[in-house]
Write a structure and sequence with these properties.
Strand content: under 5%
Structural class: mainly alpha
Number of domains: 1
Shape: globular
Length: 305
């Protein structure tokens, strides 16, 4: 048998979906992101079908124009630009999604503890959050990205890995990008903890951990999803900025940011090398913002139909 809670949850999901469908820009953003993610995910398959290799150097075919063999031409080393953009998208989207999800988990944990327990713990956690917010973000990221990992006592296998710059960017962004989610969750938790169903759970002897995870956390999912979606675009931009400054994802791993870096001295010789990754970053960030706005409207409990 279906309970009233299941029926209520289903009706709320149906209402949210109905609101989201009316947001045409959000639907367009979701479609664009789905297409970009699908192309990036299937990059190895596309490369195999086209008979291309993102690492293959052909110095005799530098700056080749668009053709059947190279849909977007080649770069300064004769590498196919289309395939490199797809592989770069895999890295940029992975960094954006992974760092944002990790930051959201950290922010949710801190905000939930602060909002539920209140008092001195709330004051301590929120002052810590305020201190992180007060830090100048870009200079801080530049300093952290320039830290010598050999001096931190990390395993040599990790330090010498070609993916170490990827792990570093994800860790750095996650460590400083949780503050927005923390404040949102804390504010919502302060309100929800005083509702009748939470007070009833207390009366039945439920512990703090169970109340937070079973009764309060499910009611915080909507603002966390919206904040996370809107933050992905900012993370992609930060990764692109750091890569553009030479402190982000390091070659030979391609990302949209370091593709822009490599093209900055060739802007007049081969403008397409800078135009395509810049356009993809712009389209992705705009699509994420549209999607976040649509989710915010759809999941807003105060919205009226």
């Amino acid at each position: 048998m279906r309970g009233p809670m299941a029926d209520t949850a289903e009706s709320m999901m149906a209402l949210a979906l109905k609101r989201f469908r009316r947001h045409r820009l959000a639907i367009a953003g979701a479609v664009v992101l789905a297409v970009l993610a699908s192309l990036a995910a299937t990059a190895p398959l596309i490369a195999t079908i086209l008979g291309l290799d993102w690492e293959a150097v052909d110095l005799l075919n530098r700056f080749a124009p668009s053709s059947a063999a190279h849909p977007l031409g080649t770069d300064e080393l004769g590498r196919d630009l289309f395939i490199r953009l797809l592989y770069g998208g895999r890295i940029s989207l992975l960094v954006g999604l992974t760092a944002t999800v990790v930051a959201a988990l950290i922010g949710t944990a801190i905000g939930l503890l602060a909002g539920f327990y209140g008092g001195r713990l709330d004051a301590l956690l929120m002052r810590f959050t305020d201190s992180v917010i007060a830090l100048p973000l870009l200079p801080l990221l530049i300093v952290l990205a320039a830290v010598d990992l050999d001096k931190l006592g990390l395993p040599p296998s990790l330090v010498q890995s070609q993916y170490v710059s990827l792990y570093r960017i994800i860790a750095i962004v996650a460590l400083v990008g949780w503050t927005t989610v923390a404040r949102l969750v804390r504010g919502a938790a302060l309100t929800i903890r005083e509702r009748d169903f939470v007070l009833s759970a207390r009366g039945y002897g439920a512990g703090g951990f169970r109340i937070m995870t079973v009764h309060i956390l499910p009611n915080l999912i909507s603002p966390v999803i919206v904040a996370t979606t809107l933050s992905v675009g900012n993370v992609i931009l930060l990764e692109s900025v750091l890569s553009f400054l030479g402190l982000g994802i390091q070659p030979p791993i391609p990302s949209w940011g370091n593709l822009l870096t490599n093209a900055q001295e060739l802007i007049w010789t081969a403008p397409g090398l800078a135009m395509w990754p810049g356009m993809l970053i712009f389209i992705t960030v705009i699509a994420l913002n549209f999607l976040g706005d649509g989710l915010q409207d759809a999941l807003d409990p105060k919205a009226t139909d």
